[in-house]
């Protein structure tokens, strides 16, 4: 560990050292000198291993889509011992959900020293059910993979190698026919009907409870409101909500609990997607009025 404390019961070494051992032999040589016996040995070192998250195609990656398969690669030639296909193990941890899974990686060939494997991620709670073969995650999750490198190039033992990645989902917003979680999108609205809004976005599933997300509703005449959508079920990643509409042409806008419309109105609903590509993008949907009802 580099402390080099004498007589502490251990010898501090690295891969550049030669170890020498000797003892004083009490046998007196012909010349009368006291003889010494000794031996030397070089220090065996290893290859410094690494662990990275990768895409299915094999390139390194720093984010995944929620509910997708997560791929991992370890490169460590020290684990190529037998000249046959071997395995190593890594631990994948959800830093928000606190789930963890031990994954076995398989060597790509008998002599490559490269080990790959994967685990499926889903939105959900582990509820203490660790190592069940599925990584339960929450929205905006950061996952960590850990690999214990048995010996590295400097001779250090059991060093932890890590990589981190995010989990995200590109959201979708729709004006729909109801708030039962269906995805039937509405093409036009009858004034006086409720405006039903549905968002699908796992990034806002940030707890083990029913989560919420805010949307902004605006019309081309200037009326606006902000309402909260509630998650349909725990970890469903589907958020629904509604606001009423009324016919009005004087534009004395209400306090935000109803939207005033006329036959030329166009409604736009917006929300901020936390997906980092692009970060904070405003996702929207628009709808006009049913002209046949005027």
Care to give the gist of this entry?
The protein has no helices and 20 strands. By secondary structure, it is mostly beta strands.
- Straight-line N-to-C gap: 82 Å
Percent range for β-strand residues: over 45%
What is the 3D shape? rod-shaped
For this structure, the quaternary state is: single chain
Number of β-strand runs: 20
Write down the Rg: 32 Å
> Major β-sheet, in short?
9 strands, mixed
Q: Uncertain regions: pLDDT < 50 for 5+ in a row? A: none
* Mean pLDDT value: 85
Discrete helix count: 0
> Pairing-aware structural class of the strands and helices?
mainly beta
Helix content class: under 10%
The string of secondary-structure elements, in order, is EEEEEEEEEEEEEEEEEEEE
Q: If you had to describe this structure to a student in words, what would you say it looks like?
A:
This protein is mostly beta strands. 0% of the residues lie in helices and 50% in strands. It contains no helices and 20 strands. Strands 3, 4, 5, 6, 7, 8, 9, 10 and 11 form a nine-stranded mixed β-sheet that branches. Strand 19 (266-273) and strand 20 form a beta hairpin. 27% of the residues are buried. The model has no long low-confidence stretch (mean pLDDT 85).
